[in-house]
Amino acid sequence: MSSLADRPANPVVGLRAPHESAALHVTGAAMYTDDLAAQTAGVLTAWPVQSTNAHARVTVDVAPAYEVSGVVRVLTADDVPGINDAGIKHDEPLFPSEAMFYGHALVWVLGETQEAARLGAEAVQVAYEPLPSCITVREAIAAESYQGIARTVARGDAAAAMVSAPRVFEGVTEFGGQEHFYLETHASLAILDSEGQYFVQCSTQHPSETQEIIAHVLGISSSQVTVQSLRMGGAFGGKEMQPHGFAAIAALGAKLTGRPVRLRLNRTQDITMTGKRHPFHISWKAGFGDDGLIQALEATLTADGGWSLDLSEPVLGRALCHIDNAYWIPNVHAQGRIAKTNKTSQTAFRGFGGPQGVFLIEDILGRVAPVLGIDPAEIRRKNFYRPGQSTPYGQLVKDAGRLEAIWGQLVDESDFAARRAEIAAFNAANPDTKRGLSITPVKFGISFNFAAFNQAGALVHVYKDGSVLINHGGTEMGQGLHTKMLQVAATALGLRLDQVRLAPTRTDKVPNTSATAASSGADLNGGAVKNACEQIRDRMAKVAGRLLGVDERDVRFEGGFITGLGKFDQRLTFAEVANASYLQRVQLWAAGYYRTEGLHWNPDLMQGSPFKYFAYGCAASEVEVDGLTGAYRVRRVDIVHDVGDSLSPMLDIGQIEGAYVQGVGWLTLEELRWDESDGPHRGRLQTQSASTYKLPSFSEMPEEFNVRLFENAREDGAVYGSKAVGEPPFMLAFSAREAIREAVGAFAPVGHSVELGSPATPEAVFWAIEAARTAGSASAAASEATLNRNTADVAAGRSPVGADVPALASTEV
Amino acid sequence: MDEITVTVNGRRRPLQGATAHTTALDWLRDTGLSGSKEGCAEGECGACAMLLASPADDGGTTWTAVNACLMPVASLNGQEVVTAEGLGSPDALHPVQQKLAEAGGSQCGYCTPGFACSMAGEYYRADRVPAAPGEEVCEEHGPNGFDLHALSGNLCRCTGYRPIRDAAYTLGSPDATDELAARRTRPAPRAVPTDFEAGAGRFIRPATLDETLRLLRDEPTALLVAGSTDLGVEVNLRGRRAPLMVAIEQLDELRNLTITDEFVEIGAALPLSDAERRLGDRVPLLAQLFPQFASRLIRNRGTFGGNLGTGSPIGDTPPALLALGARLVLASVDGEREVELADYFTGYRQTVRRADELIRAIRIPLPLARVTAFHKIAKRRFDDISSVAIGFALDIDDGVIAAARIGLGGVAATPLRAYATEAALIGEPWNVSTVRAGSAVLQGEGTPMSDHRASSDYRSLMLGSALLKLYSSTVIESKEVSA
Would you say A307 and A145 are in contact if contact means Cβ atoms under 8 Å apart? Predict the structure, then answer.
């Protein structure tokens, strides 16, 4: 066995490999779960009856559905032989007697066709007995409607440090959630086979948990359920916890009818029923020195968890572990709690609370920098962690020096100083158009906070002909995990990439898997695949050593051939050695296993070393803002990001670019609006389609987009020296938000603190510009009063005119 | 009745199992072609895009990318479509597929077949001309002449689009062996009169305009369908099942584009993309509007007649057409009549069009006003529904505003003419103080409401801003001219 991070000569990892399914993707030949359903005979379609009340006791009469032609069965709570619950916290009844949000699925109709199931669902009669509801997080705070366990991260004495800090600011930071909008909506296809085994194909990031939930709903053991996740059309965290109930519905339908059952949400159902990124409400107080160094931070973070817990507790935990982002904060007291509201149950979404934590500190720095009279770029750099410093939760910041190195490289490569000067000249010459250029860092902890999840398995077969089939516990959602695993296997076995095949992820190949989440897919499964391959390779090396006449330690596997050190005239093919191994009765397959070493975490104290390492990156974004409308464009983006030594550079750059654009979507464009009125549709999601919930399209792509991988970046603690890449670059998008803030600030006199709603839609930016211009046209004192009055509205991205909202501001106190 | 068939990827397929409301997408997937995906079912994401053989200006065929999720499959009777599976196979990739795969243009791959089709439509566009060496490339175009707006109706959640753009911009041109390129030299399939009844509805494609008008007279429930970009959404998202649909988008009388000394006449069922291409810069206000109207995939099917026929207050064409002083030609068995667009809208989704009438054409009087502009305020730069939209058409003689027409959308239950603002401008000098005063009046036009797109205050202020922006753009232009 070689060490985890060492690479052999001429490794396949590190090569620019296209996605293993690229040729299937582009031709439409790649199959997804519901494509399989379309080709399954006799399949029934499931359709939900959704609540039209935000919170109510319900009485459901399903009899009329059976009058509809083609309706086969209506599934209700009475049909559940096991536990009527879709989650692991037992707070999510699969068939509820109390509708907890507008859109909540109450019962499911099975039809011969989708049309029959839909019409059957329309025929079901639901009587509502309304109950009080909380829609906004502010309503929940007022009603003290919370759920789960509140947590606090603390270090030093924040209260005392605040008293002694020369400059103290306080404010409220609020921001919206985000819909995953994976292009493939949730889908499951359940078949009960001839042997009584449930085979459930599911678009899931967490096949093992999907399996467990199906088993507990059906009241059977896990061994009676096999879940396969073929490939997903995007997931982003939205298929980590959310698919289980849908898969259980399909399996229950298959049990009761004996027929295959497909359940595919259409977009409206998906967006109105499934969880999203958590919105947060954060009140904070921050103490600074006159030098711009942050001395103390006090904050109360309220995550809007929606109607049930789902993953809200770990999301909150990660948020609390990322309020420092890249900055040394000596005294911290941050408490977190989870609001219970009558909305979809918010869940994992790329970054998993990390972006919400980072939002706070970046927002604070962006708001206070002008007041302190320090360049925002300078205040950020000044506060960076230095080598040897630790996080508020007590973990040493490994490789902290990379922050400074990456920042410096980016400043040079993006021509930051010269462009800043050009922008200043541009802004001076243009009264109605302003530009901003901002640079922000990210530091993101890699590993699941919950230590037990940091393990993975793999199953590798070498056949007599030398062909290789690998299987691992991770799921493919577009991130290229399977491609990386093929590269890892080819590297470990010394094969060409085309000599290794990969079979779909399923629970009867590798059991007890963790979710493919937390950016950890390649780290964990790569470790397991490498381990399995090396077991086989070491056994084959003994056989090859005998054939080549060298010691097994002198056998080399490379490019599909096996050679002995110094034996220049002799080489064997991998197939020859495989066949020889078989004949000598040497085992040619292996189960691989990996656990991340050295992790520990005490959730009650919120202290420990939960992360194996940190991923670093910096982005510089330039925007142009139209002062008359608030519309903006991202003109240029430069990124330098640390993926360790890349396993697959094209895929990693694809992850960085995609994460950045998705982050910009969250921060500037994507807006979830719920009916907060007391009208008949209270609690209804108003932006429930692609025409009202806008995600970035090609027009939001930066005009110039330069992404570079930080070089010579070996990470000793991960497979072949690489680092996780899925989530960290999402937070590089803060550079765009901060650039908008700087551009808006250019409409105001020097020293004006810009408060920006989130998402910073054109309208939200417009109100921030109005506030900036007001500050410019009035005396400083008068303008501050105006600003205070408008802040809450601006923060919510809405018109401040005529609104009656209490004053909130990030004023210096 | 003859069997209904559709030629898919070169093979004729009968329409088995479909109803009058079955979409082309559902039918394709039912026939085993699952490459086309449903991402949104409302023409926003393009995951279902396919190529439709449609008539080219030269009598040949254009491969037009369209949303399969919005079209009733019955409307494809006798037509020819190509899906991602028909472009190439994993062992023999089409050039657009090759480029997409190499560039890392697919991650999860779910949107990819649709991107491949949109990209192929642009690849085969007959008037796509690569830039000469050293020639300046115009914005949102590649050096190979690829217009990025061809992809404006396709959403990708994974890549951030850069690799897709790179793939598009490095495409070459079809070679001599390319069958789809060769297909362009032969005529597109003709419209096939159709009467298809299955499920809870009936789909009729009449052979002639006269037959259509008689049908409208005799069947009061008949629903006119042109590009189906609006009806398709109703069918998919709101379960609308019209008992009788009458397809009119292939009637010659509704597809003309004629320019006389008095007016520009645009057939009501001419796809917006066709009007965009054929008009070029002839009507500058429309040339500004087109790229901001939905996406290429929608414009390839959507029509002026449809945008006006629904009577929606937030359609993008009414503000522009109001500013242009457009008139509608309404046809029935009793003959034709012309209606001022400003008089056409009577209430929320209500118009003066009778149930037995159809919009045959839109007439834009000539000469055109010399200063025109279209402003659209939305969350997203392209392919979004406007919060407000404003069309301006002014004549400025010797620095004085001689005539003004301003059309507004999104500020009332119907599109509006901004009469008060027009009155405040006419006869005044075109200068800052007039514009500021006019802007103040314009802000008060209509009764905008607050909703998930924008607040009422923002909408009002944007009306005022639009006039300021128009003024500053004319000032910049005149400076450029004098320089």
Answer: no
Measured CA to CA, the distance from residue A64 to residue A257 in angstroms comes to 19
Contacts of A758 in chain B (CB under 8 A): none
Q: What percent of chain B has pLDDT over 90?
A: 91
Q: Which residues contact A303 (CB under 8 A, 6 or more apart)?
A: A278, A279, A280, A312, A315, A316, A319, A336, A337, A338, A339, A346, A353, A356
Q: Is the CB of residue A690 less than 8 Å away from at least one CB of chain B?
A: yes
**In this structure, what are the phi and psi dihedrals at residue B331, rounded to the nearest 5 degrees?**
-120, 140
The CATH class for the domain spanning A384-446+611-746 reads alpha beta
Question: How many other C-beta atoms are found inside a 10 Å radius of the C-beta of residue B365?
Answer: 12
Q: How close, in Å, is residue A404 to chain B by CA atoms?
A: 27
* B131 vs B137: CA distance, rounded Å: 7
User: Inter-chain contact A802–B457, Cβ cutoff 8 Å?
Assistant: yes
Nearest residue on chain B to A694, judged by CA atoms? B380
Q: Is the residue at B478 inside a domain?
A: yes
Cα angle value A760/A763/A764 (rounded, 5°): 40
Whether the domain at A22-29+455-595 and the domain at A384-446+611-746 fall into the same CATH topology:
yes
Look up tokens 């996740």; give the residue: A229
DSSP of A537-594: HHHHHHHHHHHHTS-GGGEEEETTEEEETT-TT-EEEHHHHHHHHHHTT---EEEEEE
**Structural domain count of chain B:** 3
Domain ranges of chain A: 22-29+455-595, 384-446+611-746, 749-813
Class of the CATH-defined domain A22-29+455-595: alpha beta
Q: What are the strands, taking DSSP E only, across A196-241?
A: 198-202, 225-229
- Chain A residues 265-294 with CB within 8 Å of chain B: 266-268
Q: Measure CB to CB from residue A699 to each of B19, B93, B381 and give the nearest one.
A: B381
* Residues of B whose CB is below 8 A from A234: 107-108, 110, 157-158
* Closest Cβ–Cβ partner in A28, A181, A185 for B36: A28
Nearest to B34 among A38, A183, A689 (CB): A38
Q: Are residues B358 and B379 in the same domain?
A: no
Q: Which of A179, A183, A184 to mutate to test binding with chain B, by most B CBs within 10 Å of its CB? A: A183
Q: Do B97 and A23 touch (CB under 8 A)?
A: yes
B379 touches chain A (CB under 8 A): yes
For residues A347 and A275, the answer to whether their CB atoms sit within 8 Å is: yes
pLDDT bin (cut points 50, 70, 90) of residue B477 is low
| Host domain of residue B393 | 371-482
Residue A190 touches partner B, C-beta closer than 8 Å: no
CA dihedral A72, A78, A79, A81 (to 10 degrees): 180
Nearest to A658 among B116, B159, B385 (CB): B159
ipTM of this predicted structure: 0.96
Looking at the DSSP bridge assignments, the partners of residue A591 are A459
The confidence score (pLDDT) of residue A227 equals 98
Alpha-carbon torsion angle A184, A239, A662, B410, nearest 10: 60
Q: Which tens digits make up the pLDDT trace of B88-99?
A: 999 999 999 999
Marked catalytic residue, from A534, A558, A727, A742: A727
pLDDT digits (tens, 9 = 90+) for B370-381: 999 999 999 988
Q: Is there a domain that residue B221 lies in?
A: no
| Amino acid, single-letter form, for residue B111 | C
**B163 and B16, same structural domain?**
yes
Q: Is A686's Cβ below 8 Å from some Cβ in B?
A: yes
Tens of pLDDT, residue by residue over A291-303, are 999 999 999 999 9
Is residue B76 domain-shared with residue B168, that is, in the same domain? Answer: yes
B66 Cβ contact partners less than 8 Å away, ≥ 6 residues apart: B49, B50, B51, B52, B297, B300, B301
For residue A69, the distance in angstroms to the closest alpha carbon of chain B comes to: 12
CA B95 from centroid of its chain's CA atoms: 27
Average confidence (pLDDT) over B402-417: 96
Q: Is the pLDDT of residue A794 over 60?
A: no
